[in-house]
Structure formats: C-alpha cells, structure tokens
Design goal:
Structural class: mainly beta
Helix content: under 10%
Number of domains: 1
Number of helices: 0
Order of helices and strands: EEEEEEEE
CATH architecture: Sandwich
CATH class: Mainly Beta
Distance between the termini: 30 Å
Radius of gyration: 11 Å
Length: about 80
C-alpha cells in the first residue's frame, strides 16, 4: 500500500507522526480525504470534528479536533490542531 507522512501537531506536543494509508477529515464545506501523492492543498478544519486515519500498520485511529488547519504538500500531510 502506498503511504504518506502524516503529522498531527498541537502547540505543545506532537499527537501523531508516522506513515499513513489515508486520512479523512471535515471542513466547513464537507468531508474530505487524502491518500498518498494527493495534489497540494490547504484546508480549514471544521470546529469540533474528528480526524480519522489508518496507519501503515493498518490500525485506524481518531483524533478529536477543536479547530485547526491541514496542508498536503510533497506527500506530507501536516495537521495543526488545538
């Protein structure tokens, strides 16, 4: 399975950093998802939503998001949350 680097970061700590198969999240406009080598973009995340991802080991996990932004560039997805 093709993977990308996923970094989920809070101001005071790294919540997750590792390879992922996919990541699903919600913006104010609706739900979106990314897989490896997605086109470059930036999105504002919907307040009080959930980020769902599957790590390269196949484990699915969720992270609660109060608010945040997400960028995808050079096969790296960076999510800044609070």
């Amino acid at each position: 399975m093709r993977t990308f680097l996923l970094k989920v970061v809070k101001p005071d700590k790294t919540v997750f950093e590792g390879n992922a198969e996919y990541c699903r999240f919600t913006t104010p406009e609706g739900e979106m998802g990314v897989k490896a080598h997605h086109e470059q973009f930036m999105a504002v995340l919907k307040d009080n939503s959930t980020l769902l991802y599957r790590s390269s080991s196949g484990k699915e996990s969720e992270i609660k998001i109060l608010n945040g932004i997400l960028t995808f560039k050079n096969n790296t997805c960076t999510v800044l949350i609070s």
